[in-house]
Every structure is written in structure tokens, then in C-alpha cells.
Amino acid sequence: MPHLTTRWREQAATTVDRMGLGVPGYAHPLVAPVEWGRLARPGTPLHWVTLNVSNGPGDRPDPHCLEAGGRIRNAGVRVLGRLDMAYGTRSFGELVSDAHRFRDWYRVDGFYLDRCPSGRTELSGVRRVTTTVAGLAEGGGHLVLGHGTHPCPGYAEIADQLVTFSGPWTDYRWSQVAEWTADHPPERFCHLVHGLPRTHLEEAVRIARWQGAGTVFMTDRTADDDPDGQSDPFETLPGCWDEIVSRIGPGVSE
After folding, report:
1. Are 80 and 142 in contact (CB under 8 A)?
2. Which 8-state DSSP code applies to residue 80?
3. Distance (Å, rounded) from C-alpha 235 to C-alpha 77?
4. How far is 115 from 106, CA to CA, in rounded Å?
5. Which of 69, 51, 65, 48 is nearest to 5 (CA)?
6. CB 161, CB 188: distance < 8 Å
7. What are the C-alpha distances in Å from 6 to residues 82, 109, 110, 115?
8. Across the chain, how many H-helices and E-strands are there?
9. Read out DSSP for 184-245?
10. CA–CA separation, 254 and 250 (whole Å)
11. Cα–Cα distance for residue pair 217/238, rounded to 1 Å
């Protein structure tokens, strides 16, 4: 049986049968105050928001992150702590230690396991991590595996959601969904798309629906927006944020 969580506070902002937004991790609240402020707006169709203090929980509690995360939780949205799996190169002990600090310092509601391995040989190791960290958050927590591609089907049995696409629009518009995903409902999958032209937003939402993704994050930002090419396009607020928010949900036809 897959890892399943209890219903999150009877969420008013969004439900499991409705497409919503998952935020993979904005920059620190001091660097991105506008972004964090927008997330706390009532009625924004958010499924979860990832908290990434300093490539993880950081070395000590950060009051700015605690405050920002608290505003999101008070709005009825899950806050997930980012655990960097580094494609399987980080040790079990390091990951569990990070999870404990996220729980103790920020009272997170689950975890986003970024750069998660996707192969069959790594499955048992990832299962060990998810089984352990699931017990650290309230109600078993909400677990998202950030593969960025389709993993072997067994991963669907050890987490609540899988990120089965993460990349540029130029790849997404021609992407194909793995056949095995049809055996699971849309709320089990998430797509993250960057470099999306505003004129193709509706098309991108339709692709997500056709491919069975219940959670998405779409942005027109790219790494090229930083002169040094080092920025994460998902760390900043999309230039078309309000339009994205207005198009996500049952109002967009399939």
C-alpha cells in the first residue's frame, strides 16, 4: 500500500481532486519577501510549499523562516522541509538529522526529498529514508519525491507524490507520460516547468491535465535571468504569477 496521509485540516484552499500549485522552494524570506507574501494570500490554490533555509534546515533556527512558514501553515497549506538526497550520495544519518531539525525548528508538515534517485537499485535505500522521516511530521507527514523524471513504478508505493517532470518548457511540450502512471490518480504526481512563455500557459496546463499531474509549478523564469547563470528558476516569483493562479483549477477545461 502506498504511504497515505490524513486529510490536511480539511483544507479550504484546495482539495485533492483539484489541480493546485506546489512550490519547490523559494529563496530565503529576506531575499524574496514578495514571493513569501504572495503565498500567504487567501484563495491561492496551493497544495504545499517547500522551505529551504540553507540547502536544508541550516545550522541553527532561523526566525525569518519560522515566521514565513508559520504564515503559510496558518493559511491551511502544508510546509515541507527540503531534504537533498543528492541522487543517493548523502547518507541515511545526514538525511534523518536534517529531518529532525526541520521538525524541531520549523514544525514542518512533511518533506520534499529533492534530487531523489529513480532507479530500481536505489529503491530500498529511499524506502528506508521515507519510512523513517514519515514518522517525524504530524499525522505521518506529506512526502514528495523530487525525481524530476519518471522513476521505476515502485517509488509510487513509498511517498504521497512523485515529481515526474522538472525542466524547461521546450522539453515539456513534447514530453510523454509513463504508462504505469495511469494506474494512479492525478494527486500522486507533480510537474515543474520553467522557461514557460506567457502565451503558452494554457497549453502547459492542458498538458499537465492530459498527463495526469494534479500538482504543478510553472514559471517564465530561467537560469539565464541571472547574468552568472547560477540561479534556480524556481526560487523567484513567476512574472505571470497572477495569471497562473487564475488558470489553475476546475475553470480550465480538459
Report:
1. yes
2. E
3. 18
4. 22
5. 48
6. yes
7. 21, 11, 12, 26
8. 7, 8
9. S-GGGEEEEEES--GGGHHHHHHHHHHTT-SEEEE-S--GGGSTTS---TTSS--TTHHHHH
10. 9
11. 10
Write out 117-139 in H/E/C secondary structure: CCCCCCHHHHHHHHHHHHCCCHH
Give yes or no for a contact between 105 and 56, defined as CB atoms under 8 angstroms apart: no
Residues of the chain with pLDDT under 70: 1-17, 225-231, 249-254
Residue recorded with cell 517564465: 220
* pLDDT tens digits, 178-230: 999 999 999 999 999 999 999 999 999 999 999 999 999 999 998 775 544 44
Domains of the chain by residue range: 20-247
Question: What cell was used for 10?
Answer: 480539511
- CA nearest to 115, candidates 174, 27, 184, 56: 56
Going by C-beta distance under 8 Å and a sequence separation of 6 or more, which residues neighbour residue 223?
229, 230, 231, 232, 233
Which contiguous run of DSSP H or E holds residue 93? helix 92-106
In which element (H, E) is residue 171 found? Answer: helix 169-172
Burial class (CB in 10 A: 0-12, 13-18, 19+), 229: exposed
| Half-sphere exposure (Cβ direction) of 89: Cα atoms closer than 13 Å | 3
Q: CATH classification of 20-247 is 3.90.650.10, yes or no? A: no
